[in-house]
Design a protein that fits this description.
Largest sheet: none
Shape: elongated
Number of strands: 0
Number of helices: 6
Distance between the termini: 24 Å
């Protein structure tokens, strides 16, 4: 039972997220279906919490102070192009199961770029599901190959 709790915590953590939680759970031979669902659910659960924290911490103001006008110019210069593809770009970014491309970074990007939070949440959640399925299917195949 404790392994499932650790899986849920790993799914919410910024480094491991659902992808790391899936690998952890599968490596312990836990129920694959439960691991997949737990990982996706708890990784998705972290998104509104991260948005809330970023709002309360006034993170956007801090980022603008740190990076100043350079970031503002870059964002406004490419915002017209990005508006056409913002959801697709965010989805692809979160769905690609590579380091630093998960829900945490996607939420941070959506917050800094002032994307609609409701749309961004749905897109990030879909990205989490896609990335989780890619990792799950890959890891399951590899485990069966060597098991």
């Amino acid at each position: 039972m404790i392994e499932y709790l650790i899986t849920a915590i790993l799914a919410m953590a910024p480094i491991s997220e659902a992808r790391g939680a899936i690998i952890y759970g599968l490596s312990l031979n836990l129920n694959p279906g439960v691991i997949l669902l737990l990982s996706i659910f708890f990784n998705c659960l972290s998104v509104p919490i991260i948005f809330w924290f970023l709002d309360k911490a006034h993170f956007r103001k801090i980022a603008y102070k740190l990076f100043g006008e350079h970031m503002s110019k870059k964002i406004s210069k490419s915002s017209k192009k990005f508006e056409l593809y913002e959801e697709l770009a965010l989805l692809v970014f979160v769905a690609v199961p590579l380091p630093v491309t998960g829900a945490w970074t996607g939420t941070l990007i959506a917050h800094i770029l002032k994307l609609n939070q409701k749309k961004a949440r749905l897109v990030i959640w879909l990205g989490v599901v896609i990335a989780s399925l890619v990792v799950f299917l890959s890891a399951n195949g590899l485990l069966q190959l060597f098991g």
